[in-house]
């Protein structure tokens, strides 16, 4: 019985680690989304900039198009939107990202609760064996 409980506790620990990784990944995406929104809100202040063309490679742009941007809509498809529409799209995505993070945090709490119960059973089993 103890081996089964220990295996179960190990599995819960694994799930906690993977869920935490997902939370951190979603948080990075949300942060990047928010930074992009802030950049778009202030885009009129920039005349030139750097454009990433590969890993660590950038080229200087002489003029930044300030009227529209290309927004990914899925399956590799990009749609041209004006700045306000792009910000609206990114805000909607931010809400989705935040909801996903919240759901993952709830899952984390449930799994952690199961781990605590299992750990308590293991501890009580060891006390009963003494």
Which structural category do the helix and sheet elements fall into?
alpha+beta
Describe the main β-sheet briefly.
Answer: 2 strands, antiparallel
- What proportion of the residues is helical, as a percent range? 55-70%
CATH architecture: Orthogonal Bundle
The value of Rg in angstroms is: 23 Å
> Beta-strand percentage?
15-25%
Mean pLDDT: 89
Q: Give the SSE string.
A: HEEEEH
CATH top level assignment: Mainly Alpha
Main β-sheet, spatial strand arrangement:
1-2
Low-confidence stretches: none
Number of beta strands = 4
In total, the number of domains comes to 1
Describe the structure.
- By secondary structure, the protein is α+β, with helices and mostly antiparallel strands.
- Helices cover 67% and strands 18% of the residues.
- Helix 1 packs antiparallel against helix 2.
- The protein is elongated and about 70 Å long.
- The model has no long low-confidence stretch (mean pLDDT 89).
